[in-house]
Amino acid sequence: MNVLLKSAVIVDPTSKHHLKKRDVLIENGKISKISTSISITKKVKEIELPNLHISQGWFDPGVSFGEPGFEERETLTQGLKTAAHSGFTQVAVNANTYPVTDSKSNIKFLRSKAEGQPVSLYPIGALTLGSKGVDLAELYDMSNEGAVSFYDYKKSIENANLIKIALQYSQNFDALVQSFPFDPSVARNGMVNEEVNSTKLGLKGIPALAEELQISRDLYLLEYTGGKLHIPTISTQKSVRLIKEAKKNGLQVSCSVAIANLCLTDDLLESFDTRYKLMPPLRTLADVKALQKGLKEGVIDGVTSDHDPIDIEHKKTEFDHAKFGSIGLESCFGALRSIVDTETAIEALTRLKLVFKVPVNTITEGAVATLTLFDPDISWTFSEKDIVSTSKNSAFLGKELKGKAYGIYNNRKLVLNS
Fold this sequence. Notes:
Blueprint: E1 3-11, E2 21-27, E3 30-35, E4 45-47, E5 53-56, E6 58-63, H1 76-85, E7 88-93, H2 104-113, E8 120-125, H3 139-145, E9 149-150, H4 160-170, E10 176-178, H5 184-187, E11 192-193, H6 196-201, E12 205-206, H7 208-225, E13 228-231, H8 237-248, E14 253-258, H9 259-263, H10 285-297, E15 302-304, H11 312-315, H12 329-337, H13 342-348, H14 352-355, E16 371-381, E17 400-410, E18 413-416
Parallel strand pairs: 1-4, 1-5, 6-7, 7-8, 8-9, 10-13, 11-12, 13-14, 14-15
Antiparallel strand pairs: 1-2, 2-3, 5-16, 16-17, 17-18
């Protein structure tokens, strides 16, 4: 589809048109012309929207869809549709499925299901067979089939030697290893952040120590082995300090933060609403401030929606029995833009492409068009009607947000919100 974007402010520090209002013509999937004004006689779809901004397409480094195995939560088709309407052109999909994505054939299945979709899917392979933390999975074969990283989704690798071997072995084919920052022997059966609120509410706590111990261990292993390590969804102020120090020492470590942990605190638990039962748990205001500062300083490499659809039977129940998790794609940009400026928000949603080896396309003439269309300034209240996902378990329902995606252009397809 050929498209003419009218009067769009370009937000792309790698482009000479950065922060300038331009018309952008897209033909045959590429940006053919960028100018202050473009008039055209041939057939194109002209897009003119209030306060239109465009950036490089947004990338989410960690989403979960239900398929295969949990289609009642969300199918791959529905998940990719949700991503498109939320402004994401590329998503890395966790091995949070049944069967677990731990083989070449599983990777092939995910990629084939996503063929022809406007959103590009990048599979994450399980680090261990069945994500059981015992034996390494087929990392090399999965890498050859298109896996961009290896990660047992939100499961701690208790055997330090396994992480050591994974980091050593993965260097042979330049792969990215992820390790969830969680020590279950410290966390025990905790459900929420261990602090004043957990005591007041009588809920079993997960101390910040459970995260920080695991990060310390993994950074020592990385220092010993070399290789590339990504620590997903950090949530405490000391975690930020540990990773900052490791980067200063030259280690190839990156990290992400979930949008909920970046914006919300454990004060919300007073309602006993299971939408706020998350992993990692919501922490204190001091933690939230440290995470926001870490993001602005570049210590935290990017933001993930941590999109995790859960069916109503497993979410709308007693707090003790409810599953951890929240959907996040639809509210991610609005929540992020509520706490940082537009340029920082776009950086947070695109920088991890380099870490995960996802193509980066500058907004310049001749480049492949992979674009997100958005209004960074609109204020709105997130409600159930804004949810595209099959599941409705959002921690941001009722929250005031700023900034909203209009849609995307990617893979020669235009998707716009109605």
